[in-house]
């Protein structure tokens, strides 16, 4: 675990302690540079040069850029970072016409062992610190500003299981809301179904969105696809989601990776629709065509079958949409993040 205190690890009060003896307006300038402008100390020309150099030494960055890969259409950017200790994580920036979304990692690797996910195939290394999480967002925000886009949404759907690192994830959410100025309703935390994390989220003060990576609606299949289901089976997961809804009254999203012949059959749709109806507010289902990973031989459903599955869900009273895959050719799409898996397509920039 890293012991170095980095620039996004410190709170505003802790920054004031680091800059002890410095006028308060200087603390404000540094904080604005970090959170309003998302820039480096070397860019802060309103501070003395010696102070900038001292800040860079006292509060180094948490992330060292390894590569930056850009999709063929230029609308998806994947960052590969190296952390203190040598672990690597990835962040994805998705650019739209007038805005941007950041998909952020919360762990180096993942212990959930979902076989169809490249991160799960890689295993778990460690939790990320608050600073490592927040800096991903700051660096991606800076990149978005370079092309005149504003980051409007952040999703905790990158590497790792956010609810397994809940306290640090939540502190990063508070920074997003309080210091980056992002609405809590534009922040989504995903989980494969860690019930203690879902219940903790219900008690937290900000109304962020909850997404559950479901992928199967019966315990036998879900035990195989999402092994944590053996500890927290579907009935218990539904109960936890209902407890969350009783507090938040905001619908839960179910993520469903479409796997050919595995969870895309008519009976899978019927079981999923039944689970959706058991919630206080019907869940919204995001259908995701399975993206290819080297460690999982099964194919994703055809796009035709994905749309048929959606139509069947809707005929059964469930609300469903098909998520557009972005960045598949640079291994930046859902389930593909592996922190260094070779990229064979797309454009890559190496620092």
Automatic annotation (TrEMBL):
Domain Radical SAM core: 96-329
InterPro entries associated with the record: Aldolase_TIM, Elp3/MiaA/NifB-like_rSAM, Methyltransferase_A, RNA_MTrfase_RlmN, rRNA_lsu_MTrfase_RlmN/Cfr, rSAM, rSAM_sf
GO cellular component, one term: cytoplasm
Keywords of this entry: 4Fe-4S, Cytoplasm, Disulfide bond, Iron, Iron-sulfur, Metal-binding, Methyltransferase, rRNA processing, S-adenosyl-L-methionine, Transferase, tRNA processing
EC assignment: 2.1.1.192
Alphabetized GO MF terms: 4 iron, 4 sulfur cluster binding; metal ion binding; rRNA (adenine(2503)-C2-)-methyltransferase activity; rRNA binding; tRNA (adenine(37)-C2)-methyltransferase activity; tRNA binding
Catalyses which reaction(s): adenosine(37) in tRNA + 2 reduced [2Fe-2S]-[ferredoxin] + 2 S-adenosyl-L-methionine = 2-methyladenosine(37) in tRNA + 5'-deoxyadenosine + L-methionine + 2 oxidized [2Fe-2S]-[ferredoxin] + S-adenosyl-L-homocysteine; adenosine(2503) in 23S rRNA + 2 reduced [2Fe-2S]-[ferredoxin] + 2 S-adenosyl-L-methionine = 2-methyladenosine(2503) in 23S rRNA + 5'-deoxyadenosine + L-methionine + 2 oxidized [2Fe-2S]-[ferredoxin] + S-adenosyl-L-homocysteine
Main subcellular localisation: cytoplasm
Cofactor entry: [4Fe-4S] cluster
GO biological process terms held by the UniProt record: rRNA base methylation; tRNA methylation
Compartments, as annotated in UniProt: Cytoplasm
Similarity-based family: Belongs to the radical SAM superfamily. RlmN family.
Anything else known: Reaction proceeds by a ping-pong mechanism involving intermediate methylation of a conserved cysteine residue.
Primary role: Specifically methylates position 2 of adenine 2503 in 23S rRNA and position 2 of adenine 37 in tRNAs.
Annotated HAMAP family: RNA_methyltr_RlmN
Name by which UniProt lists this protein: Probable dual-specificity RNA methyltransferase RlmN
Organism annotation: Ilumatobacter fluminis
Lineage: Bacteria, Bacillati, Actinomycetota, Acidimicrobiia, Acidimicrobiales
Gene name of the record: rlmN
């Amino acid at each position: 675990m890293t012991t170095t205190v980095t620039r996004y690890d410190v709170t505003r009060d802790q920054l004031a302690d680091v800059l002890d003896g410095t006028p308060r307006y200087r603390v404000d300038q540094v904080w604005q540079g970090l959170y309003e402008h998302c820039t480096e100390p070397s860019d802060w020309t309103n501070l003395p040069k010696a102070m900038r150099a001292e800040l860079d030494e006292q509060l180094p960055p948490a992330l060292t850029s390894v590569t930056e890969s850009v999709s063929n259409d230029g609308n998806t950017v994947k960052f590969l970072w190296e952390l203190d200790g040598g672990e690597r994580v990835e962040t994805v920036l998705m650019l739209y016409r007038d805005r941007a979304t950041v998909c952020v990692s919360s762990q180096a690797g993942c212990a959930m062992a979902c076989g169809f996910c490249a991160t799960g195939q890689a295993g778990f290394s460690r939790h990320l610190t608050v600073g490592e999480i927040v800096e991903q967002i700051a660096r991606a925000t800076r990149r978005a500003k370079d092309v005149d886009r504003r980051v409007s949404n952040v999703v905790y759907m990158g590497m790792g299981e956010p609810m397994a690192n809940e306290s640090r994830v939540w502190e990063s959410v508070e920074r997003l809301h309080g210091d980056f100025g992002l609405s809590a309703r534009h922040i989504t935390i995903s989980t494969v179904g860690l019930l203690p994390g879902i219940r903790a989220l219900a008690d937290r003060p900000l109304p962020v969105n909850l997404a559950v990576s479901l992928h199967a609606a019966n315990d036998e299949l879900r035990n195989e696809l999402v092994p944590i289901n053996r500890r927290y089976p579907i009935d218990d997961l539904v109960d936890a989601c209902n407890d969350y809804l009783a507090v938040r009254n905001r619908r839960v999203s179910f993520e469903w990776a479409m796997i050919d012949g595995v969870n895309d059959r008519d009976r899978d749709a019927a079981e999923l629709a039944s689970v959706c109806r058991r919630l206080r507010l019907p869940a919204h289902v995001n259908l995701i065509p399975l993206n290819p990973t080297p460690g999982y031989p099964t194919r994703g459903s055809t796009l035709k079958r994905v749309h048929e599955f959606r139509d069947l869900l809707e005929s059964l009273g469930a609300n469903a949409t098909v998520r557009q895959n972005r960045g598949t050719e640079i291994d930046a799409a859902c389930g593909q993040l592996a922190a260094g898996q070779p990229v064979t397509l797309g454009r890559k920039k190496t620092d």
